[in-house]
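A reminder from the course coordinator: this example appears on the midterm review sheet, so study it carefully.

Given structure:
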């Protein structure tokens, strides 16, 4: 059986207690911590940025999975890399320089992720095959936690698995104990979960159930 990674999103964390929140995720068995960076332009919301990533890096040792929802992310790649991101994912819709952005991430020694919003076909990533380590399929419109899973994402995950058999497939948005099995059956390797982990009474059980429900 292939390994499933669970990457809880701190977008639903209590930011006043971010150190304890991140340590609690690490202790509860999270594989990675998913950090949602929003610029108020690419998405209609603003969240955290470089100094916060830098602080989180000092609290935990597990990889930081940084999801950039930012226009022309190439401008910030080096700073996020230096702040301690391990995987840097950018949106194909946010840039006219996807190849350069992927190469800039790689040049910093980081893993490259490339993401598509719900209305963007995964085929749009074909020209960049070989330049990324992970595809992030958004299963909600990016910008907010706690939205409903878009069910057509399942076919998109299958298609991504066919087109890009050698990269990790991450899925983000609306994943919980009811939606996770079809996502994993379709071929996802990395499960992002905001509310389903952060608001759970027992985070360890929530993470384990997301990893094992298949
Ligand atoms: C949305 C973010 C997600 C979000 C997921 O733009 O990219 O990572 O935090 O939250 P849930 O799992 O609650 O949908
Ligand atoms: Zn995200």
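Designed residues:
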């Amino acid at each position: 059986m292939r390994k499933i990674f669970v990457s809880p999103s701190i977008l639903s964390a209590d930011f006043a207690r971010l150190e304890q929140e991140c340590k609690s995720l690490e202790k509860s068995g999270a594989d990675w911590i998913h950090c949602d960076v929003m610029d108020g332009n690419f998405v209609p919301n603003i969240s955290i940025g470089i100094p916060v990533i830098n602080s989180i890096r000092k609290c935990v040792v597990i990889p930081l999975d940084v999801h950039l929802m930012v226009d022309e992310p190439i401008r910030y790649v080096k700073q996020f890399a230096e702040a301690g991101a391990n995987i840097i994912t950018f949106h194909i819709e946010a840039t006219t320089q996807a190849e350069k952005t992927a190469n800039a991430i790689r040049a910093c020694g980081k893993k490259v992720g490339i993401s598509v919003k719900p209305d963007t076909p995964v085929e749009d990533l074909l020209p960049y095959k070989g330049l990324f380590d992970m595809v992030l399929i958004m299963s909600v419109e990016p910008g907010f936690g706690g939205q409903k899973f878009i069910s057509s994402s399942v076919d998109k995950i299958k298609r991504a698995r066919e087109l890009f058999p050698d990269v990790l497939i991450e899925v983000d948005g609306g994943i919980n104990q009811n939606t996770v099995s079809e996502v994993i059956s379709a071929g996802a390797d990395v499960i992002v979960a905001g509310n389903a982990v952060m608001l759970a009474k027992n985070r360890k059980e929530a993470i384990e159930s997301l990893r094992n429900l298949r």
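The mean pLDDT is 97. The pocket of zinc ion (ligand 2) is lined by residues 9, 34, 36, 67, 172, 192 (CB under 6 Å).
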